[in-house]
Automatic annotation (TrEMBL), chain A:
Family: Belongs to the anti-sigma-factor antagonist family.
Function field: In the phosphorylated form it could act as an anti-anti-sigma factor that counteracts SpoIIAB and thus releases sigma f from inhibition.
Lineage: superkingdom: Bacteria
PANTHER family on file: ANTI-SIGMA FACTOR ANTAGONIST TM_1081-RELATED, ANTI-SIGMA FACTOR ANTAGONIST TM_1081-RELATED-RELATED
UniProt keywords, alphabetically: Phosphoprotein, Sporulation
Gene Ontology biological process terms in this record: sporulation resulting in formation of a cellular spore
Gene3D superfamilies for this protein: STAS domain
Residue stretches making up the STAS domain: 3-113
Protein name per Swiss-Prot or TrEMBL: Anti-sigma F factor antagonist
GO molecular function: anti-sigma factor antagonist activity; antisigma factor binding
Length: 118, 150
């Protein structure tokens, strides 16, 4: 099973929406696709919309943290939105919720990030 | 006393089988009427355990994963085993955020997640022989108790 990724560019921002089960099997493809998009678009803000993630485990946490570090390395930012209850629980257990910004949905994230860059 | 209902399966240590393993266990334990939250916890535990066998136990080597699940009253017992490299220092690997494979972007949260999603957890491992994880989890939904006493 593959995780489907839809991306949408909004100036310096990119919204990537993930659909499917984010486990170790899916991780490699998600990592490759997101890294290619980050490099090709040169955006400095990646909004990862997890609304379609129906299952996630610690392999998913690893991919998300990896992309967060990648964005940081290019002085960019990664934020996540639309976490389901179980995904939110994993973020809390691992401390990721203290590292990256979490928004309830993409609209809120886009608005908040626009205000920052204004 | 009713005898335990059990299932076991052996499958190749391939990442394609991670989803298969968690769905198979979820379907088996569905007869206890777990809540959605309990079912997610069980699937996550299976996914973490099986992924560890694949990445750490076998790595590049081919091998099989042995999974057993038993229903005992309102509890489930799960065993996940590999015949891979084994673990040298059990205290070390169970620490939150510890991973021996940071280059694979592992988060090191597998053991922490597994321990917090079950009631009992034990690891047996012999270096060069393999690793066996045992879990016990009580399904707390009131329906499951009545369901099983009938
Ligand atoms: N089945 C196994 N065989 C050998 N080593 C293992 C096994 N499972 C876990 N380990 C070791 O325990 C460490 C921690 O596991 P875990 O908490 O799941 O984190 P991660 O999988 O992200 O590394 C692994 O990095 C590995 O060194
Ligand atoms: Mg793991």
């Amino acid at each position: 099973m593959k995780v489907q990724i839809e991306t949408m560019n909004r100036g310096a921002m990119m919204v990537a929406t993930l659909h499917g089960e984010l486990d170790h099997h899916a991780a490699e493809n998600v990592r490759g696709t997101l890294d290619r998009e980050i490099e090709a678009t040169k955006v400095d803000c990646l909004i990862l919309d997890l609304r379609g993630v129906t299952f996630m485990d610690s392999s998913g946490l690893g991919v998300i943290l990896g992309r967060y570090k990648k964005m940081q390395a290019i002085s960019g930012e990664l934020v996540v939105t639309s976490l389901s209850k179980p995904v939110e629980r994993l973020f809390e257990m691992s401390g990721l919720h203290k590292i990256m910004k979490i928004y309830k949905d993409r609209e809120t994230a886009i608005k908040a990030l626009k205000e920052v860059t204004k | 006393m009713k005898t335990a209902n059990s299932m076991s399966m052996t499958f190749s240590a391939l990442s394609e089988n991670e989803a298969f393993a968690r769905v198979a266990v979820a379907a088996f334990v569905a007869q206890l009427n777990p809540t959605l939250e309990e079912l997610t916890e069980i699937k996550t535990v299976v996914s973490e355990a099986v992924t560890n066998c694949i990445i750490h136990g076998y790595g590049e080597i081919e091998g099989d994963i042995y999974l057993q699940c038993k229903i005992l009253g309102d509890s489930i017992e799960l065993v996940v085993e590999d015949h891979g490299i084994g673990i040298d220092d059990l205290d070390l690997v169970r620490q939150p955020l510890y991973t021996s494979r940071p280059e694979l972007e592992r988060s090191g949260m597998g053991f922490t997640i597994m321990e917090s999603f079950v009631d009992e957890f034990a690891v047996e491992s012999v270096v060069g022989k393999g690793t066996k994880l045992r879990f016990k989890k009580r399904i707390r939904t009131p329906q499951s108790a009545t369901h099983h006493e009938v």
